[in-house]
Amino acid sequence: MENELFFGKINPKKIKHKRSIELEVQSESQKSAMIFLEIIREKFPVKIENQKGNVKNAVSIDKMVDHLKEKVVLQKGEEERFYALIREKMYYKVSYFVKLLYNVNGNPITFTDLENIFYFDDFLRTSLSRLLPSIEQFVKSSLNNCLLEKYDNDSLIYLNEKLYKHNTESNKSKLNDVLSVCASEISEVSNSNDAVKHHIINHGGNIPLWILFDTITFGKFNMLVTCMDRKVRRYWIDYMKLNCQYSDDFEMSAKSLPSHLQTVQILRNSASHLSRIYGKVFTYNPGIRPSDKYWNKISIESFNKPDPSVQIHSLFSGLISAKYFYQCMSNTEVNKWNKFIEKLDNKMTEIKYLNSNGYMGFPENWKAMLLIV
């Protein structure tokens, strides 16, 4: 006798915090059954293949300081500040910045040198946390306005497949998945967002485009953009550039647009989640083509052109992506960006042992490439 195939549905909301769930299922022959599902969750210690070793033992803060004092020279009165830095910022992070001090001449590294590089990273992180949300607001607003203008103010245009790549089953499946994820987020925030709740109750659950974009995360917005047809992205790029006074440097194509958005997203998330910015190799991959002017403009004395596999994951390439969007924004926003670049320049000239090329991907002419003029 062949096994019958049973069908059932699970609401993801109902299994979020449960260890097990009972599910009623039914076969094509209308035969019903109850099945019991145990939800497997990750637990500590985390398991992967080929593990070895045991937990690393903690050491006292005195031993931590003693270890770092072998590499950092403390002047009179600095030991208390050294202890405070470790207590407030964590030993692991402080010790990593000791490694990042680019000391090619073998000169003694002082506590002031360490403190300067540490708070330079703080400056990068806080500046990006302040600057990058403006890009999210701008791209969501500009795409909303572009689509409403192009498609006769159709507030549900995001549900029309003509907006998206839909020539293969894979494309259709991906779009359905992304729309489902967006719908789930709308549903989740409905109790705390009055605008969303209003449209669910009073407009049959139909969420207009502007409410959708304002509600979903930057990551989900970018997922939706990735599904869009290239001609739609091209409309959007043209729309962004309409009021752009600084478009000579704008090398973003319909193909590369999603990668630049994801680059800004990853850079913003890194800054928001207290991740190290200085010396970080980023996971983004902005679509900067070998033929783009970007590579020809970079001036680095040690070699003619940087290694793309390294340069593309640097802080500098992330800032280039951010600049592309900022140069399409208002003069007020452009001035904010340029003030950041000027302040960055001032700080970099003050700090010893800064490896701006190796740890940040900055060429010699970085300022000229990042300023919007």
Automatic annotation (TrEMBL):
Recorded superkingdom: Bacteria
Pfam families per the UniProt record, alphabetical: Abi_2 (PF07751)
Name of the protein in question: Abortive infection bacteriophage resistance protein (AbiF)
Organism for this UniProt entry: Fructobacillus tropaeoli
